[in-house]
Amino acid sequence: MYTSSAINPKELAQRAESLIRHSSNRYLTTVKIAFRAKQRRFDDFDGLLEESMVKPVQRTIVELSDEQDQPDLLPG
After folding, report:
1. Helix (H, G, I), strand (E, B) or coil at 29
2. Residue 53, CB-side half-sphere exposure with 13 Å CA sphere
3. Measuring CA to CA, which residue among 13, 63, 70 is closest to residue 43?
4. Angle at CA 66, nearest 5°, toward 4 and 14?
5. Distance between CA atoms of 36 and 43, rounded to whole angstroms?
6. So what's the pLDDT on residue 4?
7. Minimal CA–CA distance to 1: which of 76, 71, 63?
8. How far apart are CA 58 and CA 7, in angstroms?
């Protein structure tokens, strides 16, 4: 997916702003990001995944932004 050098801080900030702007409740969006990042942290705790160089919060923002922008890619 992304490596730590591939995530542009400006792009990450824009994605986070987009998530907040398109949400109906900023608090719930923030909690959703925090919860998913916490899950990712425990998933990556073993250090076996190649994406462990990217911080969980950064990866969560990118994933949620992608889900928001491209809902047709979601299963189901």
Report:
1. helix
2. 8
3. 63
4. 65
5. 10
6. 47
7. 63
8. 8
